[in-house]
């Protein structure tokens, strides 16, 4: 049983589709297979329009497997694949290579050259080939239809609550701890500066969340943006881990976002910034400790 798609974020709409895929695969005693593209075809067709992703391919595969998927195929997208007509794609990839017995898709699935194939055509092709076919209805969140682009929009607006509701889990980013101005420690709040972040960075501002390093979780106060108080414009992602005091330069740090507390401000002096940081850290500690205790 096969589902094809990008599955960026593996949001609640994707999750319903995957659970349907797994259910039908188990019923028919065949493997549940996700066929995804790496990179997303947009990187070849219109790279200037490629949005930052919500997840790396590795993270996507891990979450999909957690939902019961037996095999995730990350197809190294190339021109030859993108040039196949919808009928050729169906025959060559689904029938010949994957030997699919059935398909589960969402209503907005398009395939083949110029996205010419839709679910109506896919249904006909499956019928002709004697294959099972199911379209899963989209999932809504309030009045919004859940999609990867809606999740991206919420994160870019700093609306972490809405993103969490659509994802069905906390949004997270991962990076390597790099060097900064070594000012954080002078303020009494050392901040690990995340570099090499491969996924979408939320809107500028101050957040509370959970930092995970070497498999251990800590409440975290996170600042995304410049340091206008010190006349520095360059955007940084800075993570203060609460109740932690180790040198972690060069290590991998993962951050999950719980809520946005405020926007970045320009403070009159260092003392004013420090007073606000105390308040931020207290709020972050309260919220994130509760979250960690619930896990
Ligand atoms: C929770 C938190 C909130 C912050 N808010 C602001 C802010 O509103 N304005 C600002 O100029 N800097 C803010 N900062 C950034 C500090 O100025 C920054 O951490 C400090 O300059 C240390 O930089 P460094 O890591 O390069 O040493 C904040 C940092 C944290 C941890
Ligand atoms: N509680 C903590 N949260 C984050 N980093 C910490 C913490 N305690 C110690 N560190 C270490 O201190 C560094 C951050 O200190 P900071 O003075 O802000 O330096 P930099 O400007 O180089 O980031 C981190 O990279 C990490 O190695």
From TrEMBL:
Organism: Gimesia algae
CDD domains on file: FAD_synthetase_N
Family named by the database record: Belongs to the ribF family.
Pathway participation: Cofactor biosynthesis; FMN biosynthesis; FMN from riboflavin (ATP route): step 1/1; Cofactor biosynthesis; FAD biosynthesis; FAD from FMN: step 1/1
SMART domains: Flavokinase
NCBIfam families: PRK05627.1-3 (NF004160), PRK05627.1-5 (NF004162), ribF (TIGR00083)
Record's keyword terms, sorted: ATP-binding, FAD, Flavoprotein, FMN, Kinase, Multifunctional enzyme, Nucleotide-binding, Nucleotidyltransferase, Transferase
InterPro entries named among the record's database cross-references: FAD_synthase, Riboflavin_kinase, Riboflavin_kinase_bac, Riboflavin_kinase_bac/euk, Riboflavin_kinase_dom_sf, Rossmann-like_a/b/a_fold
Gene Ontology BP term (one): FAD biosynthetic process
Uppermost EC category: transferase
Residue ranges annotated for the Riboflavin kinase domain, each copy included: 166-289
Gene Ontology MF: a single term: riboflavin kinase activity
Enzyme Commission number: 2.7.1.26, 2.7.7.2
Chain's gene name: ribF
Catalysed reactions, semicolon-separated: riboflavin + ATP = FMN + ADP + H(+); FMN + ATP + H(+) = FAD + diphosphate
Biological role stated in the UniProt entry: Catalyzes the phosphorylation of riboflavin to FMN followed by the adenylation of FMN to FAD.
Name of the protein described by the UniProt record: Riboflavin biosynthesis protein
């Amino acid at each position: 049983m096969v589902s094809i798609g990008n599955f960026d974020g593996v949001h609640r709409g994707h999750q319903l589709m995957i659970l349907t895929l797994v259910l039908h695969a188990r019923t028919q005693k065949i493997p549940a297979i996700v066929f995804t593209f790496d990179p997303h075809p947009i990187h070849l067709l219109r790279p200037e329009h490629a949005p930052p992703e919500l997840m790396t391919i590795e993270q996507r595969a891990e979450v999909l497997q957690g939902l019961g998927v037996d095999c995730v195929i990350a197809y190294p997208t190339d021109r030859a694949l993108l040039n196949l007509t919808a009928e050729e794609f169906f025959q060559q990839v689904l029938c010949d290579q994957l030997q699919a017995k059935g398909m589960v898709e969402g209503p907005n699935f398009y395939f083949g050259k110029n996205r010419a194939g839709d679910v109506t055509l896919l249904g006909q092709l499956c019928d002709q080939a004697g294959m099972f076919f199911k379209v899963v209805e989209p999932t809504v969140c309030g009045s919004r239809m859940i999609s990867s682009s809606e999740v991206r929009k919420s994160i870019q607006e700093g609306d972490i609550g809405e993103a969490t509701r659509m994802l069905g889990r906390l949004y997270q980013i991962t990076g390597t701890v790099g060097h900064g101005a070594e000012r954080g420690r002078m303020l009494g709040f050392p901040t690990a500066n995340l570099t090499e972040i491969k996924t979408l960075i939320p809107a500028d501002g101050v957040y509370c969340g959970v930092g995970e390093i070497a498999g251990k979780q800590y409440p975290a106060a996170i600042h995304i943006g410049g340091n206008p108080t010190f006349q520095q414009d360059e955007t940084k992602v800075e993570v203060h881990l609460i109740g932690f005091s180790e040198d972690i330069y060069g290590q991998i740090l993962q951050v999950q976002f719980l809520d946005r507390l405020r926007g970045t401000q320009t403070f009159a002096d260092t003392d004013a910034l420090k007073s606000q940081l105390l308040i931020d850290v207290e709020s972050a500690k309260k919220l994130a400790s509760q979250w960690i205790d619930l896990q």
